[in-house]
Amino acid sequence: MSENMREPVDDIVHATSQLMRSLLDRYGIVIALVVMIVALTLIKPDYFPTVGNLTNVARQISFNAMLALGEFIVILTAGIDLSVGSVTALSMVTLAILSHSGVPDVVALLAALSIGGLCGLLNGWGLTKLRLPHPFISTLAMLNIARGITFLISGGVPVSGLPPTLRFFGSSDIYLFGEGDNRFVIPVSLIVVLIAYVIAWVLLTRTRTGRHVYAVGGNPQAARYSGISVDRVHNLVYILCGLTAAMGGILLAGRTNSGYPNAGTGAELDAIAAVIIGGASFFGGRGTVIGTFVGVLIMGLLRNGLNLMDVSAFWQMVVIGVVIILAVYVDVLRQRVPQR
Amino acid sequence: MANVVEMYNVFKSFGPVQALQNVELCLGYGEVLGMVGDNAAGKSTLMKVLTGAYTPDSGTIRFDDQQVRWASPHESRLAGIEMVYQDFALAGNLDICANIFLGREATQPFLGGALRLMDEKHMEEEARRLLERLKIEIRSVRLKVENLSGGQRQAVAIARSTAFQAKVVIMDEPTAALAVKEVAKVLEIIRGLKEHNIAVIIISHRLQDIFQVCDRIMVLRQGRNVGERLVPATTMDEIVGMIVGAKEDAPDSIRRVASGA
Predict the structure, then answer these.
(1) B116 at the A interface (CB within 8 A)?
(2) Which of A57, A152, B181, B257 is 20 to 30 A (C-alpha) from A92?
(3) What is the spatial distance between Cα B83 and Cα B75, in angstroms, rounded to a whole number?
(4) Which residues contact A144 (CB under 8 A, 6 or more apart)?
(5) What is the largest CA-CA distance in chain B?
(6) Lowest mean pLDDT across A41-50, A176-185, B26-35, B48-57
(7) Best of B93, B120, B145 to disrupt the A interface by mutation (most A CBs within 10 Å)?
(8) Which residues from chain A sit within 8 angstroms of residue B47, using beta carbons?
(9) In chain A, pLDDT over 70 holds for what percent of residues?
(10) Are B103 and A340 in contact (CB < 8 Å)?
(11) What pLDDT is attached to residue A2?
(12) How many angstroms away from the CA of B62 is the closest CA of chain A?
C-alpha cells in the first residue's frame, strides 16, 4: 500500500489504534485493577469497600510489596533473587535477638538492615566476582545458607516480644479524620512501603544509575561499550533487594511481635509473581515501579476478595497461578502484532 | 598540516599468530578513509589497537599531533575517538535520547546539590539538534530504539558518536546489515560527518559503498599494508586485486596523505 493510496480515514483509524495500544501498554494492568475493584465492590458491597477491610488489605500487602520492590529492581537487570524470603527471616531474627540482648533499638534496626544489605552484596558477588553463570545459582545458595543460619542463631524457635519502637513500622496505624468504626486509618507499614516505592521510582526514572539499570537489563554489551560498569550495577541491585527484604522482615517483626525462623518461606515466589503480574519482563529492561505496585495490589485484592467470597485458600493458589499466566500471555499476544 | 591520527610500525600478535606486522595508518582531519581487506587481514585488530582495546606489542600512535598510549577504549573516547559497532550497541528498550547519552547523561543538581537528577530536557533538545545536524529524519527522539528500522538504528548510533565532540569516528561494517534504500541514507549521513570536519574510518567489505563515500582507501592483507589509493585515482578492480594479493605496492611507495582531502 503506497503512500499515495492512503485515505485520511485510514490515518485516523491507524492513529486511534496506536493510541489504544499505547494506552493499553502503559495502563493495561491499571485497567485490570480497576475492573477488579469494581467487581469486588459489586459482589461484596457490605464487606469489601469498608475502611476496616481495606486497611487490613493494606497491612497484609505491605510485606509482599516491600519484597516485590527489591525483586523488581533485580529482575530489571534480567536477574532473579530467590533468597529474599530467607533474608527476611534472617533480618527479623537478628532484630529480635539483638533486641533481647539489650542492644538499643536503633542499633538493632540498623543491624537488621545491614544483614539484608550484606546478603545482597554476597548475592551480587556470586555473579560479579565468582562469575557464577546465573544469579539463580547464587541466590538459591543464599536461600539455603541464610535460612540455615537463621535456624542456627534462633535455635529453631521464635524469639518473641519486641519493644514498641521496633514494632512501630509493622504494626502501628495512623489515625486520620472520621469517627469510631469509620475512622480513616493508614497503617504505618503502608506508609513505609509508599516511601520506599517513591524513592525507587525517583532512582529508576530520574537518576543516571536508574537509567543504567534499565540499560544493563536491555543490552549489557551496549552498556559496557558506553562505559557503564555492569558489575557495579549488578552489585547495587542485589544490595537493594537485600535491603528491601530486611525492611520486609522489620515490618513482619512488627506485625507478629517476634522474629521467627520460618518467616518468609516461599515469600520469594509471591514477590516474583507480583513483579511479573505488574508487567516487568523476565528478560530485563522492561517494567515500572508503578506496575510492580499494581501487581502487588492485584494479588492482595484477589486474595482478599476470594477470602470474602469464602473461596478456599487452595483455590486461591490456583487462581493466582492462572492470573500469572494471563498477565504474561497478554504480553505475548501484544508482541505478536507488529508495532509499526 | 598535521594528521589527526598517525600509526607507525604497529606490531601485534596473539601467541603464534601475527595479526599486525609493521602496519601504518594515517588519517587527515575530515578525511574519510576506507579500510579494506579480506577476513583476518587485521582491520578490526588495527582499530582495536587504535582505540586502546588492545595494547600493541610495539609501535607509535599519534593523535591530534601528540603521542598517545591509551589503556582502554574509554580513554580514547575521552580524547575524541568514537566507535560505531556492527550491531550498533544500542539498548532497544530505551529511547533514542537515552541511547545517545548512555553512560554520559546530563544531570542537574536537586535539593540544593544533595541529589543529581538527569536533565531530560537538555538531553532531548541536544539529541534533536544532533539528528538535525546530520539531517537524520526521525519523528521523535522519544521513540524506542527497538521500534526503529536497521537504517534508523545505524543513524542513531552514528549520531551518538558525534554527541561529544569526536574528532574521529570508526565504523565497523556500517552498511552490512541494511536494506538497499537505507544504505544510501547512511552513506549520506557519513558524508555529513565530513562536513563537520569529523574524520571517519570505515571498515567494509562493500567496495561499492567505499567508493561512494571515501576519499582514500587503505588495503590490508594478512596483517600487512598492501597499498593505498586515492579514490578518484583507482578502480574497484585494482582494489580487489590488492585485497586478494594479485597486486602489491612496494613498501616504501606507500603514500601518506599530507592534509585532509
Answers:
(1) yes
(2) A57
(3) 12
(4) A86
(5) 68
(6) A176-185
(7) B93
(8) none
(9) 92
(10) no
(11) 47
(12) 23
The shortest CB-CB distance from A219 to any of B92, B107, B118 is to: B92
Cβ–Cβ gap A221/B105 under 8 Å: no
A214 min Cα distance to partner chain B (Å): 8
Contact A147, A267 (CB under 8 A): no
pLDDT at A58: 92
Say what the ipTM of the complex is: 0.87
Q: Which residues pair with B58 in a beta bridge?
A: B11
Report whether A242 contacts A87 (CB < 8 A).
yes
* A41 inside domain: no
Contact A61, A192 (CB under 8 A): no
Query: What pLDDT is stored for residue A13 in this prediction?
Result: 75
Mention every residue, 6+ apart, whose C-beta is less than 8 A from residue A245: A66, A67, A70, A81, A83, A84, A85, A87, A88, A91, A116, A119, A120, A264
Maximum Cα interatomic distance, chain A, rounded to a whole number of Å: 81
- Domain hosting residue A178, numbered range: 57-289
Mean pLDDT of A299-317: 91
Confidence of residue B86 (pLDDT cuts 50, 70, 90): confident
Give chain A's domain count. Answer: 1
Decide if A49 is inside a domain: no
* Phi, psi angles (nearest 5°) of residue B166: -70, 145
> What is the identity of the amino acid at B122?
H
> For position B212, what pLDDT does the model report?
94
Residue B251 has pLDDT above 80, yes or no: no
In a domain? residue A10: no
The per-residue pLDDT for A5 is 61
DSSP letters spanning A87-145: HHHHHHHHHHHHHHTT--HHHHHHHHHHHHHHHHHHHHHHHHTS--S-HHHHHHHHHHH
Residue B63 corresponds to which cell in the numbers above?
A: 593523535
Q: Which of residues 76-95 of B touch A (CB under 8 A)?
A: 77, 83, 85, 88-94
Which residue of B78, B88, B99, B102 to mutate against A (max A Cβ within 10 Å)? B102
Per-residue model confidence as pLDDT tens digits over A192-216 = 999 999 999 999 999 999 999 999 9
Give just the sign of the alpha carbon dihedral A55, A57, A63, A64.
negative
Q: What is the mean pLDDT of residues A164-180?
A: 81
In the prediction, which pLDDT does B111 show? Answer: 81
Calpha distance A47→A159 (Å, rounded): 35
Does residue A115 lie within any of the structural domains?
A: yes
Per DSSP bridges, beta strands B168-172 and B199-203 are parallel
- Does residue B11 sit in helix, strand or coil? strand
- A202–chain B Cβ distance below 8 A for any pair: yes
Q: What domains can you pick out in chain B, each with its CATH number? A: 5-80+165-253 (3.40.50.300)
B236 CB near a chain A CB, below 8 Å?
A: no
